[in-house]
Please model this.
Amino acid sequence: MTEKPEAPLMLSSAKSKLEFLNQAYDRVNQQATQADTKAGVILSFHSVWTWTIASQATKLLIDVSAASPLKTGLWITSLLFLLLFALSLAISVYNAIMIVLPRLTRHRREGNPSSSLIFFGEIATFSEGPLERKAQAYWDALNQATDEALIHDYITRICDVSEVVQAKYERASRSIRYSMVTFAAWACTLVLLILLGDMT
Model:
């Protein structure tokens, strides 16, 4: 039995378009939040790894000139893996921090000081003074807005947030890749430092 092709999405009315755009806007915002969560998880793992290495790092403080060739070789190998750990950690942490740094931008149309009814950065500038005056200015702008203007506002914000989400996930992917290198270097360094300590 052949499957019937899916019917194309029909968004003929302004209301259906606004509902669809509202759902799309919520989805991209959720994806941005998920990327920020990934950054927090990555940084948490790095904190644990750094603490465990720091607790063993004093084992590198040995008199290399008086050490046996085996111990000297183990010391050099430990130091090299430690440097690899530090380098990959720094790159991964940098990218994880950059996940939360992309910012939304303002898109103002000529002759309209506050063109967006969605972006918080522009809503906050609708009016100076007390909250009631700002809320009234926002209400007035909402009442004057046409369906076409609201649709354009949603589309602009969705495109803007999507660019931010893409940048976040690119950073997250890069951070995860370097985290894998960091983990491998961490494991090797930890084992080598424990062995080095047992030789003292």
Remarks:
- Residues 107-114 have pLDDT under 50 and may be disordered.
